[in-house]
Write the structure tokens for this entry.
Amino acid sequence: MKAAELLPACRTPRGKAIVILAISPWLLATWKCFAGPETLQRWAVAIWGADVYAGCGAVASMLAGFLLLGVVPLAIVRWLFGERWHTYGLGLGHSVRTFRTFLIILPFVLAGAWASRRDPAIAAVYPLNPAAGDSLWHFTGHAAAYFAYYFGWEFHFRGLSQHGLAPHMGLACAVLVQTLASSLAHFDKPPTELLASVAGGVLLGVLAVRTRSIVSGMLLHASLGIAIDLFQIYASR
């Protein structure tokens, strides 16, 4: 294929699906292999010494997730596919449904986070930032970095993947494919989280369809992650 024909080909339903399925695994693998909290913390200690901030690796990993899973897909949508971001769920969509679903589901999310505080497997992993509970300032910074990470996560799976694959394979298959991918990305997590990620992937995918936006799912996912950390810190004191 000539170079002049490559860009138009990437903008067909089939071409977009090929780009997404080819690039997405590399973005996830790069983040998992080279930008995990422990890996980045070791690099920080090697560069700045043992007195470096204990949560440096976790915060850096979250920001790396924001860049790899959020910013790169944003660039793909805008400059490779030539489409607007709101087509991929970046916006309020059906605003009434967006905020209504968030408010309806939020109590169940917080209840699940509260119940998880007694799970030893969850306590062994969270909070990812070991210094998050040192002070209100530390937790605020931790939550802000977490929120950026969840934006990247949701735009990658429920935005780029789901919206980009749907024109080629159909909406139901697109929801299931992004659920498969997001669940596989949880394989190193505790069993309860891994199992919940399957149901969560379908739920957030359906929410993105119903609301025409990733905002409700992003807020719910971020609320879950931040609440789990907050309750773990509370339970450890």
